[in-house]
Amino acid sequence: MTNDLAAQSIGELAPKLRDKQVSPVEVTSAVLANMDAYDENINAFIRMQKDEAMESARQAEQEIQSGNYRGFLHGIPMALKDIMYFKDEPATMGSEIHKNFVPTYDATVVSKLKMAGVTFHGKLNMHEYAWGATTTNPHYGACKNPWDLTKIPGGSSGGSGAAVAANMTIASLGTDTGGSIRIPAASCGIIGLKPTHGRISKYGCFPLAWSLDHIGPMTKTVFDAALLLEMLGGYDPKDPSSVDRPTQNYSGQLTEDVKGMVIGIEERYFFNNVDNRVNEAVQHALHQLEKLGARIEPVKIPSLAQAEFAELVTITTEASAIHHDNLIKQPEKFGEDVRFLLEVGELMSGVDYVQAQQIRRKLNLEFAAAFEKVDVLISPTLPFLPSAIGDSVVDINGKSLSFLDEVIRFTGPGNLTGLPALSIPCGVKDGLPVGLQIMGPAFQEEKVLNVAYAIEKLELMKGQKPDLIS
User: Fold this and answer.
1) Of 172, 298, 344, 388, most Cβ neighbours within 10 A?
2) Which CATH number belongs to the domain containing residue 340 in this structure?
3) In what residue span(s) does the Amidase domain sit (predicted)?
């Protein structure tokens, strides 16, 4: 029973908690038991908060027993990436420099989750300052992939991906600047949603690159991602990038009906130089959607050819502006890989940055034109399977290529444009999960979620679990 509870989703647990079939104490105990069983090997947590979690669970139990049920998240255990602020609690950002930083206020997303009655039970490991995609953290140790402990969980929200996959948390939140929600979601076989830029407030979240940063849910099911989006979305005057657009009842609108939908594929960019195993899994999912009545339509987005340049210049320049003083005063306190990237950002010129923003404008126009013809775009999330911890290269069909060059090739355009994008597992190859990415028009997350829900109902991952918890 204990393991069963920890393996369940918000959508499965919430009605049982509401109807008092199980208690928040039982659910939290199950999650904490998995933390004890698995995290010594996985290292998904920077900080565990077991006593605080049990106290919170007992309070939730009393409230529900008294008839004060707050809703779907009441009594649900969640651990968040250690980059989101909790008042009077350390937020390390996975760094040495900020290891003793204690915020004086809650992040907006934290405030909303507290109001909803979430039980918090820990802070999750991440790539230092969210500036990387491996979560091989020099200060808190490498986080490992539950499917294969020799592989990376992706990053920068690797602790979130690994913890959800190993049932050490029911759900989590990550941040995404070049793919940092979707990359670990694909690597760990879970759902990762990057909403439209401005949909979820970033107030109280340490920045990596202001114009590219997003916060989003990392969950076991599409329903859970939809639920968290509708609860966390909305305008926040404290966040200058927040957009005043109403959210919807995303979880209540999910349908597996894709009949008549038009799915776009941009073959020249999103299906170029892809591991054959990854391509096979994604093509199989596309074929299944066709059988359900969707239509596949090729599209052309010419400026994608310049997307990698624009992403690199924007993210490195903005990140280096944020860390400039510390890079000068205490460079030795950064991990070697992060220090290198920050030094690269210092070399970028104003001309480079302006040209990158011009490319972003072209991309937005071309994506908008594409979405006049298609409902969503589908691609692989990653062009390769999760790589070995410590490797700086990846193998794609016998070619040895730079990990840094390849890892955000398909996710970066979603950050440059700010468009909603979701990664969903679509199969397992050689014991590792494959992620499929769905992109949609701005502020139309419902389209992305509905296609993801249809893919989820195909049960392409049926019976497949990480080796560690099988």
Assistant:
1) 172
2) 3.90.1300.10
3) 26-449
Residue 463: per-residue pLDDT:
85
Q: What one-letter code names the amino acid at 348?
A: M
Q: Is 351 left (phi over 0), alpha (psi -120 to 50) or beta?
A: alpha
Is 156 among the catalytic positions?
yes
Q: What are phi and psi of 139, to 5 degrees?
A: -100, -30
Burial 341-372 (b: 16+ CB within 10 A, else e): bbeebeebeeebbeebeebbebbbebbeebbe
Q: Does residue 122 contact residue 58 with C-beta atoms inside 8 Å?
A: no
CA-based torsion, 8, 169, 234, 117: positive or negative? positive
Token couple for 214:
């997003």
**Which one from 95, 160, 172, 180 is the annotated catalytic residue?**
180
Which of 56, 156, 201, 387 is catalytic? The answer is 156
Q: According to the model, what pLDDT value does residue 470 have? A: 66
Instruction: Name the amino acid, one letter, at 92.
Output: T
Which pLDDT band, with edges at 50, 70 and 90, does 462 fall under? confident
Q: With beta carbons less than 8 A apart as the criterion, state whether 452 and 221 touch.
A: no
Question: What is the distance in angstroms between the CA of the first residue and the CA of the last residue of the chain?
Answer: 16
User: Would you say how long the chain is, in residues?
Assistant: 470
The pairing of beta strand 393-396 with beta strand 376-380? unpaired
Domain that includes residue 231, residue range: 2-469
pTM for this predicted structure: 0.98
Greatest C-alpha distance within the chain: 62
Residue recorded with tokens 């969950």: 219
For residue 99, indicate whether it is catalytic: no
Residue 423 annotated as catalytic: no
Catalytic residue selected from 81, 112, 151, 202: 81
Q: Is the pLDDT of residue 255 over 70?
A: yes
Cα 48 to Cα 33: distance, rounded to the nearest angstrom: 12
Give residue for tokens 């920890």: 6
For the chain, how many helices (H) and strands (E)? 16, 15
Q: Quick one: pLDDT band at residue 1, thresholds 50, 70, 90?
A: very low
CA angle 180, 186, 192 (to 5 degrees): 60
Phi, psi of 304 (to 5 degrees): -60, -25
Q: What is the number of domains present in the chain?
A: 1
